[in-house]
Amino acid sequence: MTTPAHGPGPDGPDGPAHPADPSDGPAEPAAAAESSGPSETVSPSGPATPPDSVTQPDPVTPPGLSERERAVLAVERQPWAGPGAKERAVREQLGISPTRYYQLLNALLDDVRALAEDPVTVNRLRRLRDARRSRR
């Protein structure tokens, strides 16, 4: 421990009897604690990324469909009174245009994860799509 620049104080030659102010002591323990954790990883093809940014499976959402994809299938599961009601619900619930909704839905019909998630809905929609295609 270093002695104060003003000489020994009233508490004795070793300094005050109470704990020192954090700004009085050396910063080595704090710096050592910060550097003892995992450091940033440097990839040869890009900038450094912290180790926490590594893509880990979300413990709440099992591997498979995203929340948005599940929401698209949930909209398709519901019965609709008329064509306008469904499009309105797509805009309100999902926040996307009906055109984008149908693009996502069509891609989901070819996705094996969607089939595993909701086989009844996906197979029903595949049959409808195939029937429309055969009429063309």
Walkthrough of the structure:
- By secondary structure, this protein is mainly alpha-helical.
- The chain is built from six helices and two strands; from the N terminus they run αββααααα.
- It has helices spanning 28-35, 67-77, 83-94, 98-109, 112-117, 119-135, and strands at residues 41-42, 48-49.
- It has a two-stranded antiparallel sheet.
- α2 runs antiparallel to α3.
- The model is unreliable at 29-35 (pLDDT under 50).
What is the compact description of this entry?
This protein has 136 residues and is an all-alpha fold.
| Strand residue percentage | under 5%
Number of strands: 2
Strand adjacency order, main sheet: 1-2
Major pleated sheet = 2 strands, antiparallel
Any low-confidence stretches, pLDDT <50, length ≥5?
29-35
Which percent range fits the helix content?
A: 40-55%
Mean pLDDT: 73
Terminal-residue CA separation: 88 Å
Radius of gyration: 31 Å
* Helix-strand pattern: HEEHHHHH
Oligomer: single chain
Which class of secondary structure composition applies to the elements? mainly alpha
